[in-house]
Amino acid sequence: MFGFYIALAVFLVVAILLLIFRISRLINVVKGKGEETTRSTNNTNAILMIVFMVGFFGLSAWYSWAHFDAYDPPVASDHGVLTDKLFWRTMWITGIVFFITNVLLFVFAYKYRFDKNRKALFYPHNNKLEYLWTGVPAIVLTWLVISGWMAWDGIMSEAPEDAEQIEIMGYQFAWSLRYGGMDNQVGDYDYRLIDAVNNHGQDFSDRAGFDDFQYRDLVIPKGKPVLLKIRARDVLHSVYMPHMRLKMDAVPGMPTQFWFVANKTTAEMRVEEGNPDFNYELACTEICGEGHFSMKKTVTVLEPEEYEKWKAEQKAWLSKNPEYMSQVPDNLKELAVVTAGINE
Amino acid sequence: MATATAVDVHAHDDHHDHDHEQSFVSKYIFSTDHKTIAKQFLITGIFWAIIGAAMSVIFRLQLGFPDADLSWLQPVLGKWIDAQGKLDPSFYLALVTMHGTIMVFFVLTAGLSGTFSNFLIPLQIGARDMASGFMNMLSFWFFFVSGAIMFVSLFLETGPASGGWVVYPPLSALPQAMDGSGAGMTLWLVAMVFFIASQLLGGINYITTIINMRTKGMSFSRLPLTIWAFFLTAVIGLLSFPVLFAAALLLVFDRSFGTSFYLSEIYIGGEALPNVGGSPILYQHLFWFLGHPEVYIVLLPALGITSEIIATNSRKPIFGYKAMIISMMGITFLSFIVWAHHMFVSGLNPFLGSIFMFLTLIIAIPSAVKVFNYLTTLWRGNIVFTPAMLFSIGLVSVFISGGITGIFLGNSAIDIQLHDTYFVVAHFHLVMGAASAFGLLAGVYHWFPKMFGRMLDSRLGYIHFWLTFIGIYSVFFPMHYIGIAGFPRRYYSFTNFDAFSGFTDLNMFISAAAIFTFLGQFIFLFNFFYSIYRGRKATENPWRSTTLEWTTPINPGHGNWPGEIPTVYRWPYDYSKPGAAEDFILQTVPFSETMESNLPHENDLIALEKEEADEIVVDESKAH
C-alpha cells in the first residue's frame, strides 16, 4: 500500500511539472519570445557562473582546510615522506593553475556575456602567446618529471643486502606471510607443491627454506629495510599499505617486490594519533573477486630489538609440520633438522 | 549560368525520386543515410546511458548507505538482493564492471563518435553521404548486435562479467575465480568483438570520407575543428581497436582452448593448473594499448564539438586554430605511447615506468594549450549562453579539474599511493567521463535543430545544465579527498578496515548527489523526446553559425543539399570580422563578396576564387 502511495505521489509530481512546463510554454508563445527574455536569461546564466564559482571554490577551500587531518593519512615510511612531499608540491602547482584557469573561465563567461551594443574582438591567433603557454608548462613539467624520476629511482632500486626478507602471497581472499628466518632468506617454492598445509608450496630441496616461519600478521622492524617478496597464487592481487605509501601488484607466475623502511612503530603511531587501538593495515587494491574488499592483514612495526626478540621466538614451519621432512632430500635432512630446530 | 541551373534541377530530381522509393525499413531501420544512422547511434547511446547511469546509482546506494534496506529493488534485481535486503557483493562488482563497459564503449564511444562523426562529417565537409553508406549501416548494426549480446549477459544466472571493465586475467580467464568469469565473460568478449568490428567499419568510413569527399574549396586548413577531431579520433580507433581485438582473442584462447598466453603457475580451487609461461602483464599491455587511446577516442570528439560551439557562441573565431590542430595531433600521437602509466605498480620494469612517466606528462602540454586557447576564445567575446554553450563551458571546467589530477597520477612516484584509489576514480570521471558526456550533451543541444528540424526547449536546457554541472562536481570532487585518504576503488564495503572507516558522511553526500544528478537527466530525456515531435520549429541557421551544415534545408533529405553542393571559400571561424555587416560569414561566401571585411592576404585569394569558379564550369561542360 505504501508503495502505491509513493508511485501515486511520483505520478502526481511529474504530472504537475509537465503541466507547468506546458503552461509556461504557451505563455511564451503568446507573449512572443522576444529579445528581452533572451537577454534576461543570458544575464541569469552569466550571474550563475559567478555564483557557481564562488560556491565551488568556497566549499572546496573550506573542506580542504577544515578536514585536512581526516583525508591526509599519517605517513610511516622513509620513501613515503618523499612521495608525500612530491604530492603536495604537485598539489600547490596544479592548485594554482586550477584556480587561475577556472576563475578566468567563469569570470570571462560573466564579463563577456552578450551585449547587443558590443562586437566581439576578432582575434584569431597570436603565436607569441601560443609559444608562451607551450613553454611555461613544459618547463614546470620538466621539473616535476625530474623530481619524480629521482624519487622513483630510489624507491625502485635494488633492496639493500641486509633487508629483512618476507614473502607475502595473495590468494582469494586473504594474504599469507612467510618470513626468511634466521638466515634471512626465503626458500624456493613451486606452485605444484601447494597443498592444504603447505599453502606457499615451499620447495624443501632448498636449504634456505628450512628455517622459514609463518606468522598471521606482518611484523616488521622500524628503521631497517624490509624487502617484500610479493606473489599471488590464483589471480592478481595488490599489496597496499596506505600508511607506508606502498603498493605493488601480486602477479601469479611473476614474483614482484617492494622494499621500504618503516620509520614509526605501531606504539609511536598510537601515541601520535591519540588512538590506543591504532594498527597499520594492509589491503588489496587489485580487483580479485567477491571478497576483494576483505583482504586485510594487520601490520605491526616494532623497535628493532623487539623485532629480533619476536623473531627469535618464532618456530620454523618445518618444525611445526615435521611430516614434510619426507620431502627434504636425504643429504639435507640433517641440516634441515638442525636449522628448523626440530630437536629442541 | 543557365547550364548550371539545369544541372541543379537534374541533381535534385535524382534524389527526389530516391526518397519516394524508400520503404519504412530502408528509411528508418536499415538506412544508409548518415543522418539516420547518426540518430540511431544517438538513441541507442541514450538507452545505454540510462542503463549505465542507473547501475552507478545502485552501487552508489551500497557505498553511501551501506545499512539501507534495498529490498525494494528486488523486483528489478531479483536474487541479487538477498533476504536481508543487501546487495550481493559479487553483483556489486558486476555493476561496477558493466557501468564502466557500457559508459566507455557504448555511450561515450558509440554514442558520441557514432552520432556526431556520422552526422557532421558529410554535412560539414560538404558531401552527399559517407564514402560507403552500406558499411556505415553495418557499423551501426554491429554495434546493435554487440549491445544486444551485452544486454542478454545482464540476465544470466551467474551474472554478467564482473572483473572490472579492464577484465584483467587471470580473474577474467578462470570461471572458478568468480561467477562473472563464466558465461557472462564469454558474452562480454563476443560483444566486444562485434563492437570492435563496428568501430573499424565506422572509422574507415570517417577517414575515407574526410580525405576524399570534401567539397570544392574545403581544404584541410578550412575544416571545422569538429572534423579534425573526428578524423584524428577515427585514426586512433583504427590503430588501437585491433590491438584490443588481439587481447580479447588471446583471452578467448586461454579461456576456451587451454592456451597459456596470460596464465602461469596458478593454484585455484584446490588444484594446480597446468598453465605455465604466460603473463598477465602481457594482457595489460595489450589492453591499455587500446585502453589509453580510448580515453582520447571519447575525449577528442567532445573537444572538437566544444571548439565549434564556443567559437559560435562567443561570436569569435576559435583562438589558435592551427595550435588547436597541432595539439590534437600531438595528443593523438602521444596517446599511443603512454599506456603503461596504468601499470606503474603492476610489476612493470621500473625503468619503463620512468620512460612512461616522462611521455605521460608531456601530454599535459597540448592539453594545457587547448585550455588556454578556449579561455582566450571567451576573452572579449560576446557570449550567448545557449544550453550547448553552457555545457561547453562546463566541459572546459571539468576538463581542467580532471586534467590536472592527471599530473599526479602520471608521476610514477606519486602514483604508488594513488593507484587504484578513489583519486583515480575522481580523475577519470571528470576528465574523461564528465567532459565527454558534456561534449555529447552540448552537441545534442547544438545540432538538434539540424537533426530533427525542431528546437530543444532552452529553459529546460538551462535547468538541466545547472543540475548536471553542480551534480557532477558534487559527485566527483569529494572523491579526491577520499582518494587522498587512500580508499581503494571497487570495494563493496569499507567497514573491514580502520584506515578506510571514515568519510561515511562524504560517501553519503556523493551518493545523494549521484541520485540527484541521475534524476536531473530525466529533464533532458523529456525535453529530447518531447521536442522531436512538439518542439519549436527550427530556422535554417538558428545559432548564426558559419559552417556548411547550416546551408542545408531545415530538414535535409537524402543527399543533404537539394542542388549542387556549395563551394567553400574561407575558414569556418569568420565571426565578428571587423567591417562585416553581420557578426558571422558563412564558409560559402566568397571573399569577392566581402571586400569590406577582407584581410589583406584574403584579397589576394579573390583571383584564385575566380579561377576555381571557371574550373567548375569547365568540369560541368565536360560532364555533359
Automatic annotation (TrEMBL), chain A:
Alphabetical list of InterPro entries matching this protein: CcO_II, CcO_II-like_C, Cupredoxin, Cyt_c_oxidase_su2_TM_dom, Cyt_c_oxidase_su2_TM_sf
A Pfam family reported for this protein in Swiss-Prot or TrEMBL: COX2_TM
Gene Ontology CC annotation, any one: plasma membrane
Required co-factors: Cu cation
Gene Ontology biological-process annotations: ATP synthesis coupled electron transport
Membrane topology of the entry: Multi-pass membrane protein
UniProt-annotated location(s): Cell membrane; Membrane
Alphabetical keyword list: Copper, Electron transport, Membrane, Metal-binding, Respiratory chain, Translocase, Transmembrane, Transmembrane helix, Transport
Record note on cofactor: Binds a copper A center.
Regions crossing the membrane: 6-24, 45-66, 86-110, 131-152
Name of this chain's protein: Cytochrome c oxidase subunit 2
Annotated source species: Roseivirga pacifica
Taxonomy of the source species: Bacteria, Pseudomonadati, Bacteroidota, Cytophagia, Cytophagales
From TrEMBL, chain B:
Residues in Cytochrome oxidase subunit I profile domain copies: 24-569
UniProt entry tagged with the keyword Heme: yes
Keywords recorded for this protein, A-Z: Electron transport, Heme, Iron, Membrane, Metal-binding, Respiratory chain, Transmembrane, Transmembrane helix, Transport
Gene Ontology BP term (one): aerobic respiration
Subcellular location, record wording: Membrane
Keyword Cell wall biogenesis/degradation included in the entry's annotation: no
TM region positions: 41-63, 91-121, 133-156, 185-207, 227-253, 295-311, 323-345, 351-372, 384-409, 421-448, 460-488, 508-530
Domain of life the protein comes from: Bacteria
Annotated membrane topology: Multi-pass membrane protein
Family annotation (SUPFAM superfamilies): Cytochrome c oxidase subunit I-like
GO cellular component: membrane
GO molecular function: cytochrome-c oxidase activity; heme binding
PROSITE patterns linked: COX1, COX1_CUB
Family: Belongs to the heme-copper respiratory oxidase family.
PANTHER family, per the entry: CYTOCHROME C OXIDASE SUBUNIT 1
Protein name (database record): Cytochrome c oxidase subunit 1
Species per Swiss-Prot/TrEMBL record: Roseivirga pacifica
Native organism taxonomy: Bacteria, Pseudomonadati, Bacteroidota, Cytophagia, Cytophagales
